[in-house]
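Email to the structure team, subject: Copper(I)-binding protein model.

Hi all, the expression group asked for a predicted structure before they design truncation constructs. Nothing fancy, just the tokens so they can compare against earlier work. One-line instruction: predict Copper(I)-binding protein, return tokens.
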Amino acid sequence: MPRTLPAGSHRRTAALLATAALLLGAAGCGSSQDPPAGTPGPASSVSADAPATGVLGVRDAWVKAADRGMTAAFGALVNDGDADVTVTGAATDVSPVELHEMAVRDGQPVMRAKQGGLVVRARSTYALEPGGDHLMLMGLTRPVRAGDQVSVTLTFADGRTQTFTAVAKPFTGAQESYAPGHGAPAPGTNGTPGATASPAS
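Reply from the structure team: attached below.
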């Protein structure tokens, strides 16, 4: 026959259990609350000056192989967001970079700096391609051979940056001349001012 505890013992046991529950609950809630203002939080795995990633998607990025002088980088910039994104600058580990576009002057295609940057509209893709807009690598510090990987960093109008890798490959295309009037001409060009990019006859 089970032993019956006095009524006072039941009350003490219930009080002890309630106190224990309160203490455990307080400990659990404390771990999920925000720390007081000024309290250091956990260290982030990304440093303050680390380049941002994921501003744009980058597909099929490549660089025209070149021994010296100038060349260009191409690919597709994909904006899956709901706001336009403007690329205002770029840099690589082998040269400075300018944002260029192809335009028509006196009936001839000419290369020039892209004023206002590259605006990638919301929910759209912006093509960088031979004979069109591209990233102009100005004055290579070393040869870019087929198969080399070139690190490219984009800078955006809001100050964010994003780095991606482009693979170098040989390309002749329509014999585009990536040699603007300023700076050294690209290999195989005559360095004529005007930065023409007309196809070979």
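The radius of gyration is 30 Å. The domain at 57-168 is CATH 2.60.40.1890 (Immunoglobulin-like). Ping us if the truncation boundaries need rechecking.
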